Amino acid sequence: MACGYMRATNSARLTVATTTALMLSVFTVSVGFGIVLPLLPYLIERLLGARGDAALVSQHTGLLTAVYTLSLFLFAPMWGRLSDQRGPRGVLLVGLLGFGVTMLVFSFVESLVAVYAERFISGMFAAAVTPVAAAVFGNVTTTEQGRARRLAFVSMTGISGFLLGPMLSVFVTRFAADTFSLALPAGSIAVPLAATGLLAFLVAAGVAFSVPSIEGLGRSKQISNNSADQKAWLAPKLLILTFIVSV
What we know:
Elements: H1 2-11, H2 16-48, H3 54-86, H4 88-106, H5 112-126, H6 130-140, H7 144-180, H8 190-210, H9 219-226, H10 228-231, H11 234-246
């Protein structure tokens, strides 16, 4: 049974459309984080009002970033387990649609407590995208070299989105202001956040049509059943390492 599954998995090939959709999914959540990060101080300062001195703004900026990253760490294993059981397409769709909604909601929040809640929920949905996309590449690729190359591309896509986020934020804001004659205040976050949300919806549509629904992915389960004694320590250590790097 395990051999049959492996043959079925290895016989699959990622099409250009599927690969593009997966890469865009990773890029979208990374851009979302890169766009939000430099805008947080402006938002916090506005929400705090007269109480918003530099020290307090810096403190909340760090805490909000930590809340997002902690949510990623906490929920990634859950989404990965669901992807193994139900297939990656549904998990990716939930992640992208949920991420898009949180970005749109974020552009209208007027409470610091709501910002913390949004960052946590946004991280929860983002955790359904990058790990699952990487798992699809890992499951379908037939060689170790091909798997390493594709996972490296996933990592590069995420880094590119994070680095391009602030620049795209400025570009989108200026484009909207010039095109629609909008009088946007300095540090406005509504336009870039709404643009990120719309991008997430568009990428979700691409995922719905191009990513196959592979029901009952059991590869990791089969492998773990065959070598549970030798590999039982691996997942906890990798999770601890991921948490340290995130901190």
